[in-house]
Write a structure and sequence with these properties.
5-stranded mixed β-sheet; two-stranded antiparallel sheet; membrane
């Protein structure tokens, strides 16, 4: 037992992750326009292949909702038969990026962007799974999911089956929440696992009319890419899709890794190795004709929350997916979907950083704004573009804060006016600099001293030279510009 000190924790966590993964695998596959079993195959590969590799020890991989639109469009354009070769080539591209060391650049992700990502994903999960708990079809967009909730509740009130289904989902959430108040001995069984077992028993005993998991055989849907699929590579159109698959899958996986690292105190993610692990998994998925794989924050957060300590939990979750989906589909058919939806609603709630938003707003409003904008963008658009918006806003904020500039003007009433610029002169503060300089008297000579600048970008240098030329054009003597010490010229005169 000393060789596997965390076997018990990892075993129990793997069951929870397996239960969370089942509806995700099936739901993502159906939304992508492919057989549900292909989603399960991707989940199995995520556990047994990527799960065994180094990178992020507690991150769990499988089919992701963020890829559904891309996959649906690819299948519509090239067909299901070509999906395998697209995923295969995307996996090989990820392997190349990992070996080239590109993954480590994702370590620079802003904390506020990561928190915003967690918040946005949590909101989308909660909204989407409420529909699943009621047995209703959810709108495709994040905004549609949230805006349609009042109508969904109204529809559910008029249906006994929908109310029963909602009750099962609500009951599962209640079990998870109150499970932590029970004695420690009882808590040794994860609350999510207890919720599913109790919901399954209640459904069977009372013959409740709720939807359950439906799975058929896996072997019939495995379609390795054939010669016709590889022939598609001769056309340029498919390469755009392949590159999009590789970049978006990599970004989602490494953004997720940064988020997962904030959920636990264990080993940190090795980004390049995680990129390689994701590439290896997608290569295998491509050879099997399955869906593309990314790290999935829902499964990963459930894994951490359930007490996982090592990568054994994610490998075992792949084993359970293979065992139950391939050998015992009847066991999956007993699990009510609203109970699984309840687990996901609770997981989504845990991702929203309620306790951090208000203090962050009081102390760092710029960071709080980035968090909120990132979350709203993910809900309004999608995860990948929402994170890009958050990152762009973070870069702009950093650049703005780094552009501290001070202009000191000394006018003794006679002789030249002395203007001293210090700090960082970038294009972001250019309007302020020019406004101050252009307010100087036009009929007086000016000495502009730049030796106090730490940085002077091209835009500012050009603007200063143009201002000096305009000022000198009025007939006064040329503006005398003293450059920073690192400049090869200690003094420079710009004349009209």
């Amino acid at each position: 037992m000393t060789k596997f000190p965390y076997l018990r924790q990892d075993f129990l966590a793997s069951i929870v992750v397996f239960l969370v993964a089942v509806p995700l695998c099936i739901g993502v596959a159906v939304a992508s326009g492919v057989p549900a079993e292909l989603g399960l195959i991707t989940g199995i590969v995520g556990g047994l292949v990527t799960g065994l590799m180094r990178g992020s020890s507690l991150q769990v991989s499988g089919p992701a909702a963020g890829m559904t639109v891309l996959v649906f469009e690819a299948v519509s354009e090239f067909g299901v038969a070509a999906l395998g070769v697209i995923v295969l080539m995307a996996g090989l591209l990820q392997l190349a990026m990992g070996f080239l060391g590109i993954g480590r650049w994702f370590r620079a992700i802003s904390v506020s962007v990561v928190e915003g990502m967690l918040c946005g994903i949590g909101l989308v999960i909660i909204a989407g799974q409420i529909y699943a708990a009621a047995g209703l079809k959810a709108p495709e967009s994040g905004i549609g999911k949230i805006a349609g909730l009042p109508g969904a509740f109204a529809d559910a009130l008029g249906s006994t089956e929908a109310l029963t289904s909602l009750a099962i989902g609500a009951g599962a959430i209640a079990v998870i929440v109150f499970w932590k108040k029970l004695p420690k001995a009882v808590q040794s069984v994860p609350g999510a696992l207890a919720a599913v077992v109790l919901a399954t028993v209640a459904t069977l005993v009372f013959s409740l009319p709720v939807a359950t998991v439906e799975v058929e055989g896996l072997l019939g849907v495995i379609q390795p890419p054939g010669t016709d699929a590889f022939a598609e590579l001769a056309g340029p159109a498919i390469w755009g899709t392949i590159i999009a698959f590789a970049l978006i899958a990599s970004a989602e996986s490494l953004f997720s890794a940064a988020a997962v690292d904030r959920l636990h105190d264990g080993p940190r993610t090795q980004y390049n190795k995680e990129m390689i692990a994701q590439g290896a998994g997608n290569t295998v998925c491509g050879l099997l004709g399955a869906l593309p794989m990314t790290a999935v924050i829902v499964r990963s957060s459930a894994n951490v929350a359930a007490g996982a300590k090592t990568k054994a939990s994610r490998v075992l979750h792949g084993v359970w997916l293979l065992l139950f989906a391939a050998a015992m589909p009847w066991a999956l058919a007993l699990i009510p979907l609203p109970a699984l939806a309840g687990i996901l609603v609770h997981a989504g709630w845990k991702l929203i950083p309620f306790a951090k938003i208000v203090p962050l707003w009081r102390e760092h409003r710029g960071e709080a704004l980035i968090l909120v904008v990132t979350a709203v963008s993910i809900v309004a658009v999608n995860m990948f573009e929402g994170v890009l918006i958050g990152l762009a806003l973070s870069v702009v904020k950093t650049a703005w804060e780094a552009s501290h500039i001070k202009l000191e003007v000394i006018d003794k009433g006679a002789g030249p006016i002395q203007a001293y610029l210090s700090g960082n002169a970038t294009f972001l503060r250019l309007p302020k600099i020019l406004d101050s300089l252009e307010s100087l008297p036009q009929d007086r000579p000016v000495e502009l001293n730049l030796t106090g600048l730490h940085h002077l970008d091209h835009a500012c240098r050009t603007a200063l030279e143009n201002w000096a030329a305009r000022h000198s054009a009025t007939g006064t003597e040329p503006v005398k510009v003293t450059e920073p010490e690192e400049s090869p010229e200690s003094e420079k005169v710009t004349a009209a």
